[in-house]
Amino acid sequence: MRRSLLAIPETFPIAGTFTISRGAKTKAEVVTCTIGASGVVGRGECVPYARYGESVEGVLASIEAMRGAIEDGVGREDLLDLMPAGAARNAVDCALWDLEAKLSGVPTWQVLGSAAPHKLVTAYTLSLGEPEAMERQAAREAWRPLLKIKVGTPDDAARLRAVRAGAPQSAIIVDANEGWRPENLARHFALCAETRVALVEQPLPAGDDAALRGHARPVPVCADESVHRTEDVAGLADRYDAINIKLDKAGGLTEALALRAAARAHGLKVMVGCMVGTSLGMAPAVLLAQDADFVDLDGPLLLAEDRVPGLHYDGSDVYPPEAALWG
């Protein structure tokens, strides 16, 4: 069955400015991959991430290099050998999942052999800012059950205490974005315990996280930048309590499912996260996150404009995708 392929860049404005320790952004730059066959099309979206050496142009070139194989009918499992983990493979892989669902009339969750998907509670991310500004953000969002805050600066203590003061009842995930160091780890962990943090995400740089091995961890610690592929998991089980699975890191739903199984096999908790993208990028992750311990799929909530149709959000609840969107 001959296929068609189209990959295009798209831009969606962020509501305000989204800031982490690595910088700020005002728009989400995504690549949308469309694969067609027999009069129907499947779609996938990815977010190229500079931290991993990716760019919109590079992702488009990587997908274009696969044109012949994709149009000739390459399968999802074949992609694991033909393309490296990352954003480009994610867009292609998710488009193939969607195309399969459209061609067969069978939703992806049934293909996976799972129960019908249900709504999930997602974290809502507060942008990095001065402590007073973050306290105001937290107070505005204090009705949400789960907040995620970006830290990774010299005055994280002030920021953490400010957010806890602003949202005294919310559970909090702290994302240090590799911004802490082994010498201040104990102090930061004590601070997280004091402020009742539920999870600390990637406290140390990915190449310098061996210091976590054997270190007392009063709160669970989650790997993000340190984990991309299934084979990464075994080497992380002695220093982390959880892994954050993102489709753009894993290179699609196919690898992400294997990552999830590997995490469970090693006794690790699972977080399903995202880059700042649209509902099309979140949709397959909603299925992946059905049994996750932590869900962070708030990308569309951070945008000033999302796709239509998009995922349905009701406060912090995110509902499974409709077929018109994906899967």
From TrEMBL:
Its cofactor is Mg(2+). SMART domains: MR_MLE (SM00922). Keywords: Isomerase, Magnesium, Metal-binding. Its EC number is 5.1.1.-. Mg(2+) binds at residues 175, 201, 224. The keyword Cytoplasm does not apply. PANTHER family: D-GALACTONATE DEHYDRATASE-RELATED, ENOLASE SUPERFAMILY MEMBER DDB_G0284701. This is Dipeptide epimerase. It comes from Shinella fusca.
